[in-house]
Amino acid sequence: MADNYLQFSETLDAIKPREEKWLNQQLGTDPDTDCPVFLLDYEDRDSDDPDYGFGVCFDGRGKTRRLWIYGEEHGDVGRVAHLVQKFLKRFRPDQCWSLTYATTCSKLRVGEFGGGAVFVTADEIRWNNSYEFVEACARAFQRRADVARLVEKAKTLGIACEDLDDAVHDAASVPASEVNNGGLTEQIAHLVEQLGPEDAEKALDGLRKPERGPRSPTRLST
After folding, report:
1. Are residues 184 and 192 in contact, defined by beta-carbon separation less than 8 angstroms?
2. Mean pLDDT of the 25-54 span
3. Partner of 176 at 20 to 30 A CA spacing, among 46, 90, 140, 214?
4. Where does the pLDDT of residue 213 fall: very low under 50, low under 70, confident under 90, or very high at 90 and above?
């Protein structure tokens, strides 16, 4: 049996007294729900969950006063980001904050090590995840392979750029003229992106040029 962990350790620095007071209020418990106050407007919270989803601790004094935010074995990065964004909106709307985290396993199980990051501002929360990054790269790699294969097929079928104009227009989510002006590779890449490789290939098959039969012998007039 193996244990999985999600761990992180970051701080909110230079905490002022009024900021600390507000943070303590947010980390307090709502008497009506037993929920931490900062999670009352969090969409993914369970109504009966009294936990922050991470560890917190104030340390330092004066200008070095900070809030340490951590996940020793497990932690909910989404809840951290929610609290920090509320803090930035109220006190530091022109600043940003980030957290990186690791996902590990107590045994060397394949595919169970990764990590990610979250970048927080007063206006948005952006995520990066190692698993999603690898999957996106694999999809892009396969897409390039599909495009290269279909370009060669189009050339074999005798399909020219202008033959694909209508198919690109039908599948267009961007100005089709820009795609069509990019040539055969750009057109097929767009079709693969919009339709997927199977339907893009069907579009090429629909444009297959008829094969010319053998010429009849020319009769010489006498």
Report:
1. no
2. 88
3. 140
4. low
